[in-house]
Design a protein that fits this description.
Number of domains: 2
Strand order of the largest sheet: 2-1-12-11-10-9-8-7
Structural class: alpha+beta
Number of helices: 10
CATH class of the largest domain: Alpha Beta
Oligomer: single chain
Length: about 450
């Protein structure tokens, strides 16, 4: 049970929520902040019954993250590889040569929408009903980020075929049920908000239709209340249970494609959006369907998250970054005390090493990791490394992500680069050798 926010924080959050609902003219808006494993504060504004935390809203594209989780589970089981072409698991589409990883990251060049009628407002059918053609491939593979609902519809079909069950059943059995998201369903189960469009020039509303999207369900079908969406935020913060490993979740959150159309720093991992807002990195996903807007984003460094649900088609800015900023300002996180811990290597290995004439510092950092980077105030490449069973070190991030660091007595060997204890040490195996006459 999460500790509730302070009364002053609650008022600040409520003021933000109330203004967003009024200015955005949302028929109803519910939102909350997450920490310590659950909702620390939530409220509803507009025509929302109580308890506001149990009213279902459509999640829209947050469904894509759920789909991606199942794909990553299949990868972890060895049933598929992210480098596999789609054709290997879902034959007969014009995107057969595009990889599963490209589809997950919206880098496959698939068209933004499925062919035919607007899939979000009309009943969906099967893959055959889509009658996909070469025109549904609009960009080359891995050329640029291009958000694709169609791509995730195909991933949903892949999941169904590999598992031998419907997408609805697979995501419930493998993601929703294990996380305790019992009120998350593919169709609305009362109490549920009605999808509504608000006229742009007058304060009048229009009901939006709702259908099962068929093969496109994996792109936006799910409905959930605030409590279930909060549990999903807790999952994104690291409480993954038996659904995914922490390493796989971290892999999903690593930026792959950059959304160059976004006003700020925005990227996409494997089924997860990665946003840079006010010097904070948020991971999660937004969602929209006719009549609904949703969002779930977390700050893993702060171990806080925000969730929001509204029944309006457009015109409402997300409140989540603002709520998280309010929480940081009102109740700053008190970090754990520093305590000594043994380094993962001998102390004499740590310290200054030179890449050519450029000094770098190798130091131990929390979690049994090493960090190699330029001295403070100097530009250069930096990465963290984790020990492998064979004694080598694997790059986790930065320029050397995926590269191998080998530590010898007189040098470091990193991706053909040799780091030495002194600039171009003639006693170390410097590539190309060292001029015999030395420095002069």
């Amino acid at each position: 049970m999460a500790e509730p926010v302070l009364p002053t924080t609650a008022r600040r959050l409520l003021a933000r929520l109330a203004r967003a609902q009024r200015d955005g003219r949302a028929p109803s808006l519910v939102a909350g902040v997450v920490r310590d494993g659950g909702l620390a504060w939530s409220a509803g504004r507009g025509a929302v019954p109580e308890p506001h935390t149990d009213v279902q809203y459509r999640l829209g594209s947050i469904s894509k993250t759920v789909t991606a989780i199942v794909v990553m589970r299949l990868r972890d089981e060895g049933r598929l590889r992210l480098d596999d072409p789609l054709e290997k698991h879902l034959p007969g589409t014009p995107l057969g040569d595009r990889t599963l990883g490209q589809l997950l990251a919206h880098l496959a060049g698939a068209s933004a929408e499925s062919p035919g009628d607007w899939w979000e407002r009309t009943p969906g059918g099967t893959l055959a009903d889509l009658q996909l053609e070469e025109d549904d491939v609009v960009l080359g593979a891995a050329r640029r980020f291009h958000y694709s609902n169609l791509g995730f519809g195909l991933l949903g079909e892949l999941v169904a075929r590999v598992r031998g069950a419907s997408w609805d059943d697979v995501v419930d059995r493998e993601v929703l049920a294990p996380l305790g998201m019992a009120r998350t369903t593919p169709r609305p189960v009362p109490p549920a908000a009605a999808g509504i469009a608000v006229h742009p020039w007058a304060d009048v509303v229009l009901p939006e239709p709702e259908h099962h999207a068929g093969i496109m369900a994996a792109a936006g079908q799910l409905w959930a209340p605030l409590t279930d969406l909060a549990r999903f935020a807790v999952f994104l913060l690291g409480d993954t249970g038996d659904v995914l490993s922490a390493a796989t979740l971290a892999e999903m959150a690593e930026p792959a494609g950059v959304d160059s159309s976004a006003p700020g720093w925005s990227a996409y991992g494997l089924g997860l959006q990665v946003l840079r807002v006010d010097d904070r990195t948020l991971i999660g996903h937004g969602g929209s369907m006719p009549g609904f807007l949703a969002g779930v984003f977390v700050d893993r460094d702060e171990q806080t998250g925000g969730v929001s649900l509204a029944n309006t088609t457009a015109g409402l800015d997300t409140v989540i970054p603002g709520m998280l900023a309010d929480l940081r300002a009102s109740e700053p996180r008190i970090v754990e005390a520093w305590v000594p811990s043994p380094p993962p290597v001998d102390l004499d290995v740590l310290g200054v090493w030179f890449w050519g004439p450029a000094p770098h510092l190798l130091r131990a950092v929390p979690g049994g990791l090493l960090h190699l980077g330029p001295l403070p105030g100097r530009g250069g490449r930096a990465s963290r490394f984790t020990r492998r069973p064979d004694g080598t070190w694997l790059g986790l991030d930065g320029y050397y992500a995926g590269e191998t660091l080998r530590i010898a007595d007189d040098h470091l060997d990193l991706g053909t680069f040799i780091f030495t204890r002194s600039p171009y040490d003639p006693a170390a195996p410097v590539p190309g050798g060292v001029d015999e006459s030395g420095w002069r």
